[in-house]
Design brief:
By secondary structure, the protein is of the alpha/beta class. The protein folds into two domains: about 160 residues, 3-Layer(aba) Sandwich (D-Maltodextrin-Binding Protein, domain 2); about 120 residues, Periplasmic binding protein-like II (D-Maltodextrin-Binding Protein, domain 2, 3-Layer(aba) Sandwich). It is about 45% helix and about 15% strand. The chain has eleven helices and eleven strands. The protein has a six-stranded mixed beta sheet, with helices on both faces. Strands 8-5-9 form a three-stranded antiparallel beta sheet, with helices on one face. The chain is globular.
């Protein structure tokens, strides 16, 4: 009987310990998702409507607002290569109600270019998609492959019109990287967003568009654009597009590529419960969202949500490539190494 009582006591203590541990874990989980905003959140998209940043931000916001129980209002505020809208958020009170979005490489080089006094260290980074650049021309273009296009650039220096979403956009970075490797020259035509650049090319205003796959995919599938190369290590296949897009390395073997990661950015200084809640949503609910996975597949993107150090590790290589390309070309006013961007090895 005495042994039975001892065993019973041990069992009670053990159960109490387990229940206590579970309570702590439940409380911890609740604490990580404890922020319930009382007002709508303003997501300032610093590029024009219809582009890649706008599209992926809207899709992500629709999912996130369901978990926050509050509306996320998208406000497009383009200008100065995305720095205008970004500054708006940076200047707002740090209550967690103002976010911005875009490519991490844009955010990382604003200070390098003298556009905005901010660095990645000023922001909490929440990645959603990685999107490659695709060099494309009109379907009736005389350039049948990327090699022919390069020959065209060399034969007509400064005359072939290249449409992008503006200086510092993914498309402008792409054509400048190609220029660095090949020595080509071109005439840059800037638009207020990637979608506008694509439409201008289809309409015949420009000859080439090197914007993001997300911005070109509809026109590719409709037969209005012809893809010549993807700026990635491997070829790209798109659902609904009948040909594989070859890697730029087929023509430029030593071309160094890195994924262009997009995400939502929250300025540091907001309450910790805001960061904890968003981190919890990103790492569990958002990562498992089937709708976002399907959206990525339909638009030739990679759904790859990440936060914190993991997010920085994924996105930083492209920040380095872009920052040092601008510095080496004389387009920078700040040495990247002085703001925590070492030269890529």
């Amino acid at each position: 009987m005495r042994d039975f009582i001892k065993s019973l006591v041990v069992m009670v203590i053990a159960c109490g310990f387990v229940l206590g541990t579970m309570s702590v874990e439940i409380a911890s989980a609740a604490g990580e998702n404890s922020w319930k905003p009382e007002k709508p959140i303003n997501l300032i998209v610093p590029w024009g409507a219809g582009g890649a940043t706008d599209g992926v931000s809207r899709q992500t916001a629709m999912v996130v607002e369901g978990f926050l129980g509050q509306k996320i209002v998208i406000v497009n505020q383009p200008g100065a290569s995305g720095s205008v809208g970004t500054k708006t958020v940076l200047d707002m009170p740090k209550k967690g109600l103002y976010w911005t979005a875009g490519a991490v490489k844009d955010l990382g080089v604003y200070k390098v270019q003298g556009l905005l006094d901010t660095t990645l260290a000023d922001w909490h980074i929440f990645l959603n998609f990685a999107i490659p650049n695709v060099v494309a021309v009109r379907a009736d273009s005389p350039y049948k492959d990327f090699g022919e296009l390069l020959e065209g650039f060399k034969a007509n220096p400064g005359k072939i019109l290249v449409a992008t979403a503006g200086v510092n956009s993914a498309g402008h970075t792409a054509i400048e990287m190609i220029k660095t490797y090949t020595g080509i020259d071109y005439k840059h035509v800037s638009y207020d967003g990637g979608n506008s650049a694509v439409i201008a090319t289809v309409a015949g205003e420009c000859d080439v568009v090197p914007q993001l796959s997300k911005e070109e995919v509809d026109m590719l599938k409709a037969g209005k654009l012809r893809a010549l190369a993807v700026l990635a290590d491997s070829p790209l296949s798109i659902d609904g597009y009948d040909q594989e897009i070859p890697s730029v390395k087929q023509w430029i073997p030593d071309f160094v590529t890195a994924p262009i990661y997009f995400g939502i950015f929250v300025p540091k200084g907001v309450p910790q419960e805001v960061v904890d809640t968003l981190t919890g949503i990103w790492n569990t609910s958002l990562a498992a969202d089937q709708g976002l996975k399907k959206y990525a597949a339909q638009n030739a993107m990679i759904f790859d949500p990440a936060t914190g150090d993991a997010a920085m590790k994924k996105a930083f290589p492209m920040v380095q490539l872009d920052a040092w390309m601008k510095f080496d070309k004389g387009d920078a006013v700040v040495d990247p190494s002085t703001i925590g961007i070492p030269r890529p090895k």
